[in-house]
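Schema walk-through. Below, the input block comes first and the output block second. Nothing else is stored per chain. Lengths vary across the set, and this one has 650 residues.
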Amino acid sequence: MQSPSGTAGRPGDSPARRGRRIRTGASALAVALAVALGAGVSTAQAAGSGPKPGPKPSPSPSIAAPGATTKDPSAAERAAAQKAAAAAVAEGIAARPYMGWSSWSMQSSNYPGLNPGGFGNWLTEANLLPQVDALAGKLKAYGYEYVNIDAGWSRTTSWTPGFDQYGREIASPERFPHGMKYVADYVHGKGLKAGIYLAIGLAKEAYNNGTTPIWNAPGCTLADIVYPDLRTTNGWDSSYKIDFTKPCAQKYIDSQAQLIADWGFDFLKIDGVGPGSWRSGDNYNNIPDIAAWQAAITKTGRPIHLELSWSLDRNHAADWKKYSNGWRIETDVECYCDTLVTWNNSVKVRWDDVPAWTPWAGPGGWNDLDSLDVGNGQMDGLNQDERQSYMTLWAISAAPLYTGDDLTKLDDYGLSLLTNREVIAVDQQGIPARPVTPTRPAQVWGMKNADGSYTVALFNMGSFPAQVTANWSSFGFGGTATVRDLWQKNDLGVLDGSVSATLPAHGSRLFKVTPKSGSLKVASYEAEAGANTLVNGASVDGCANCSGGSKAGNLYNGGALRINDVTVPKAGVYQVNIRYVTGDPRSATVSANGQNAVTLAFPPSGGWDIPATITVPMQLRAGANTIEIDSTTPVYSPDIDKVEVPLNVR
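--- output ---
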């Protein structure tokens, strides 16, 4: 199930809906109900038009209802997405995760001095240009190149939007007295790229009773592109939904894209996109909008990176990959509080959410985890351990690296994080990592690199120090390996079988591991093998990418798979690899010989025919054993491809 996962987006008709602070009283309840239930009244009407961040519910994205499943795209949809991604790379767009800076983190914060004139008012030409200078001077040499201007550029400091005579957003003279072309030219003059922002749909304030003509489209007005009932769309219902069966609709998108291209922008973020942004249903299906934007950008002849936001529905991952170059998988990372972010508000939830999206990251389109605010601990609201873990996850996920910090006030530690070339290289190779242990406080993530080495990350998501161990067998090799600590930039020598560290709360380590000697002998047991036992409705089904083309599934309400005759030479603790498939977060109870049963959380593998592996230590006895994977009533468990037992005891 694609659970709603956080909020945020930009204000459509006021910034009143943007934050996550909790208010009390009837008005707060009205806003929360309007957002949570998709009520007909907009949150602007419920909360008023003042610049006050409103409350948002915060359901966990890691909880799936029993029986609900994510829809996998068809083979044809996947192929179309990959073809479009390859075309983007050929045009020089999104070959690697982009790097840069974004304005929204400072706009949304109550940190002293950032927004003294009111919420979102940091964004002005006078405030922006020093950030451009700082990016060029401090971070450009490390690959950071995009300067992304977020919501508010077209609005007065009281958030009244401005439009030209064709209903296209234009710069607020109050914020950008020299206009947007001047800003883009300034950015380009520093050897950087310029980004800008729009919300999906036709802004209500642009409509003007439908009489506004559309640029370069004789006979077309804005009345000719909307539905007669003026139905609304986007994450805040701040826009009218565009009807793309009408020929004038594409003309309007073309006109907006051409204006942005004429100003010289290289990046466009479109916000409030559905399905996603906590919205679903026909009114919030903006896939036709994004297709129109891609077509319009192509017509301009200017390479423009198209980024989508926020909390996009993974059921439509193939559409996002086909029509865009990046997509936000979650709510805003910002806390809308007295700092830029907090660990608990929405930084840590990314560890739960990113595995489901991992298969979609690659050249032409990337999973966007949002701003990387690690540059100034006091302003960020994080300690050093949290800042390192934050950037570690972004890097191993091949996520865009764009900070939202005040670049003129980076502290020494923050600068060291943002400019670590070895960590940046992990991100820029574009190979996303996966968790290889069940989702719990002590986590191991990693991936095989292009050069045959492995990147291995250890995380402690808990509140107390903990030891975390990565076993080489989790990654498919054995014996010894040379290990380099990428954050400390020092070699740890040759290690046999594993690497361990005692980590502080929210701490991490990041290693490059290069196999040196030894092979891994593994006994493999297919889930569908006739010698196994299927219990309480469990059954065998086809799986195109599974070993043997089959899997065992329907593990629900007591359904179980017993893998019999798992034979090992001597008693001991074995690091058993369970290869599974699931589109959603699932759990299962795992045991050997009916002993030491433990219920584990299985992160999404990314699809119902895309296998992933987690490693579980299991006490096995010499000779034959039975490993059982049992559903946790009444929650569905993942489908099982096979079990691998490395025949070396640790």
